[in-house]
Amino acid sequence: MSKMKKKRGAILVIDDEPDICELFEQILGAEGWTVLSAYNGLDGVVRNTASNPDVIILDLKMPKMDGIETLKAIRKTDPVVRVIILTGYGSAATIRDALDLNVYEYISKPFENDTIRRVVGEALADSGGTSDDRRRTPEDSGEGKRHE
Amino acid sequence: MSKEPGLIYVPILHTRRETAGIARSLQDSANTGSTATQAPGDDDRSAGDDRSIQEMWAGIAAKLNDVHLPYERVRIFQEAMPVCGIEKEIAESLTAQGSRNHQLLMDLVGQGARLEGTEDPDLLVQEYEYLTALIAAGAGRPELVAFEEYQARSKVLMEKRDAFIAARIRSTIREGELPLVFMGVRHQLDKQLEGDFMITYLIYRLPFRKIGDIYNV
Q1: Per-residue pLDDT of chain B (217 residues; tens, 9 = 90+)
Q2: Contact criterion met (CB < 8 Å) for A105 and B207
Q3: ipTM, interface predicted TM-score of the complex
Q4: Rounded to an integer, what distance in angstroms lies between the CA atom of residue B168 and that of residue B165?
Q5: Is there a domain that residue A148 lies in?
Q6: Using an 8 Å Cβ cutoff, are A80 and B185 in contact?
Q7: Chain B: closest CA distance from residue A38 (Å)
Q8: The CATH number of the domain where A115 resides is what?
Q9: How many angstroms from the chain centroid is the CA of residue B207?
């Protein structure tokens, strides 16, 4: 187990590409944040409910349940979680959808690691929701991957 | 392979100040022959909002740099840029006032692109009047009622603006030219153009929440 001091804040990455999830786990885990991964939209919705993260990083292009559908499902039960859309493509229509679904940031691939670190940090700070009484931690639920 | 001509569409966020500033420039130029130096809402941007806008434009510039457009054949269409004959002067004036958006336009013009008048001046002045009323209602932090009223009126107006812009693009673009369109994310201009052009969306970063309630979508 790493001796790195964990920062308060949990991030859920929803992306069908395991390599991308792993990249985020490395980049954001190295900052001391707790990082969870879901490899499809449905799993993302379930994990959001179970783990109540502070920030979600969501890929738009996923099979079966795409990012916008996933976000619509999440917003039915969670209107406050900060969501960062990450996509390799994106039409103006999907951007309008994202705006209507209270998205915090919209970033296109390829992205700079520093950009992701900064945006996630800003989203966590802006959420003001990293207090333990707001969310149930992954440790509580025993779910999700964790980088410590 | 499609025979439809290409079009580069750049969804953008910008502050009300920028829209108000350009409409104010238009009004002032009509009255005095000079462009405006200040617009309503100048003080409504925080440093964080400003930084987010700057980063968005830096990212868009980097993306454009990556795609190597043939600028001698590029015609730029910019939201809130009136068809008025002094488009370049307006862009220069707003660049001097710190608009990263217009600075990028001037950079592209410097590389050979042509800046085209894009919007109906009368419709822009209406938008300016709506914004002025909104800002006056709340001294920079408008009441929800005033904001909702503005949104409803602005939405109807935006449909008219989009129809004008689409017609403008169709009527001015020449064979072999590439339209490069900078348009606010709430506009649905792309829907009106998709039957005539193969649209490629150029996106870098849109800091929706960071800019908060001051951006003009």
Answers
A1: 456 789 999 999 876 566 566 556 666 655 554 444 444 444 444 555 667 778 889 889 989 998 999 999 999 999 999 999 999 999 999 899 888 999 999 999 999 999 999 999 999 999 888 877 777 766 555 567 777 777 788 889 999 999 999 999 999 999 999 999 999 988 999 999 999 999 999 988 888 876 554 444 4
A2: yes
A3: 0.74
A4: 5
A5: no
A6: no
A7: 23
A8: 3.40.50.2300
A9: 16
